[in-house]
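Title: Prediction job returns without error message
Component: structure pipeline
Severity: low
Priority: P3
Assignee: unassigned

Description:
Job completed but the reporter wants confirmation the result is attached to the right record. Sequence as submitted:
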Amino acid sequence: MSRAAFKLSVMLPALLAASPGLTQNSVPEASLAPVPSFVEEAGSAGIEHRYDGAWEFFVGGGAAIFDCNGDRRPDLFLAGGRNPAQLFQNGSPTAGPLTFTALPTGMNERQAVRVLGAYPLDFNNDDVPDLAVLRLGENLLLEGKGDCRFEVANRALGFDGGRAWTTAFSATFEPDLDYPTLAFGNYVDRSAPGSPWGTCHDNFLFRPDKTAEGSVSYPEPTRLSPGFCTLSILFTDWNRSGEAALRVSNDRHYYRGGEEQLWAVPAGRPPRPYRKSDGWQHLKIWGMGIASIDLDVDGFPEYALTSMGDTKLQKLDVETDETVPIYQDIAFDLGITAHRPYKGEDLKPSTGWHSEFQDVNNDGLWDLFIAKGNVEAMPDFAAVDPDNLLIGQWDGRFTEAGGLAGIGLDRRGRGAGLADFNSDGLLDLVVVNRAAPVSVFRNLGQGTADVPKPLGNWLAVDIRQPGQPNRRAVGARISVKTGNHTRVKDIQIGAGHASGQLGFVHFGLGVAERANIRIKWPDGDWSHAYRVFANSHVIIERGAEKARLWYPE
């Protein structure tokens, strides 16, 4: 979308208010984007799992989505709280019903419980995905051994997983470092006097170092102090300077005098928080999840911040000074606040958790999924609070479609993820619910369970940097252009709520049958344009003349 079109979309509420028969929550029916149909298949898919436990597990409940056996189909790791975490291998036939098989996680019985979330990454550059596992207690780095086998690598990496209550994670590759820099976000310090009120734990930043023997280790972490009870973090190049900063979203329920945070993480130097003197604006929300996307393709990402109450959508105020972190909230203008349930009679405020931008109907516009659910039994917030599916429209606004899509269940969502589990070009959905079975939805497009029908054309793009650190190109930017329409997405590890994924990046193409792909690699170099056909799984290796294709069996 052009800048002029985006500004027009921001003006839309005033235009609607002046138009007979229209409101801020309605647009002409003919202009609405198509809504996909989802069917819940967790039981038939072989996934029996619950996230549950005492008050320490009111938060968390994450899902990691990644290919653990090299067949390029996304597998699942699910946090369990007091129940053991589980790993599920994906055996879904192409375009068929979803099918998974439970496998060992590589953790012992003690390590497998008290898990709050997990994020996939490749920390040792062997092109086999690893896992960062967040726990109430010692966090774990699981090294992938191939064929969905994992080993705990804390000792081998000199990594001290600590004893904190860890609820967030992000990772980035800094210049001249072979292994990733790891950030762990922590919640309440339960051992502090007065806990839980005002006893938020500091967050930790681990930078890799080489031992005398030449191996890589993670020595004593840098404390990011003060911490304000973090529930989501993300390394993000917010001003396109080429240097990732750490965005931190915090739960004001427990902190005193806290706020949302942005930390500068300059290479080779100590991190420091942005302050009011840097242009950072004081913002207090019940921060639970972060989703990042460049909606208007102006080069600067927007951030959806979930909370108890309304969702924020922050846009950098580039007209003031693009080098200063001053943000405008455009959530109301674009119809994305999602502040109350869209079905049922409970009109109390919503509680948002995991958030994620994807294109679920393949029309070439980003949509926003938000997992919803009461913390436990908070009387001032909605008890029945179905998950949101906000469909992007060509006027720049979003329209709620969770009920029409069939995902509006009476469950308390926490972590989640959207991925194409059966390689049919339609994004499916997994939601980890508190004290209820996990939800696994198959996307049928506009078809039926027997005959799914895509809503539009699509691309799935996977990129690699062979023979060098950061093989998965964390920090790269994928640009897909069809005609005069461009959509972009960054390769990031972090954000969401205790949930992350690694693998094919999905783009909807609408009616376009071809597309041009360009990659801005993490060091700033751009690839040449790769011209590809729609409805393809595309693999691009840095420096390759042509893109490779993967064909599902």
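Comment from assignee: result matches the submitted record. The CA atoms of residues 239 and 323 lie 6 Å apart.
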